[in-house]
Amino acid sequence: MDEQSIRNRRVMRDFAATSLAAIPNLFGRLAYVASLRDLSSGKYEHAGLSTLYPPESVQEGLESCHQELFQKLLETPLGIQEGDLRECLNGMSGPLSATISHWRQMESYRILPPEDTPDYLRELFFSNLRALLEILQVESSRAHSGA
Question: Where are the domains of the chain?
Answer without folding.
Answer: 3-145
